[in-house]
Amino acid sequence: MAEYKILDVSCHNGNVDFTQVKKAGYTGVILRAGFGKSITQKDKCFDTYYKDAKLAGLNVGAYWYSYSKTSSEALLEAKTFLQAIKDCQLELPCYYDIEDKTQIPLSKTICTEMANTFCKYLEDNKYWAGIYSYDSFFGSNLDMSIQSRYAIWVARVDGRKPQF
User: Fold this and answer.
1) What is the CA radius of gyration of the chain?
2) Residues in a beta bridge with 61
3) d(CA 130, CA 96)
């Protein structure tokens, strides 16, 4: 199995030299396209990062940080996400980033329905859909069946192997 080194990048990273990222052995980047339900919440660096990552020869994917608490809100976020990435050629998945503290108290059923709604909308529009979160959220807030349905990206900040 091939190993890929992928970097998560958002405007919080400031100025990124994607040529150096490539030289450091990364094969791709997953860029935060934005968050919420309004196109005004598009990541202010997304377009520049996208262009620079492509010029550096990196594979690119994107993610959308969710604040939704219902499936109808998740659908609005998915529509906004596609509006933000409509002119992009992506080689890596498009992720629904579900991890906000306001979503932790929601039931496993509600969170799974939101994730399925978001990802189904992406797939219906011919995008490779995935879900991004951290181990405990996958365990407590998302049905296990989601792992075999969509691409899964588990947050790693300390080098430990993901449980999910």
Assistant:
1) 15
2) 30
3) 6
Can you tell me whether residue 62 is helix, strand or coil? strand
- Torsion, Cα 3 26 60 17, to 10 degrees, reads 180
Integer Cα distance of 116 and 131 in angstroms: 9
Among 89, 36, 80, 84, residue whose Cα is nearest residue 59: 89
Query: Tens digit of pLDDT for each residue in 24-65?
Result: 999 999 999 999 999 999 999 999 999 999 999 999 999 999
Contact 66, 47 (CB under 8 A): no
Q: Under a CB-based contact definition with an 8 Å cutoff, are residues 114 and 71 in contact?
A: yes
pTM metric for this prediction? 0.92
Report residue 145 CA to chain centroid gap. 19
| Measured distance CA(71)–CA(116) in Å, rounded | 8
pLDDT given at position 135: 87
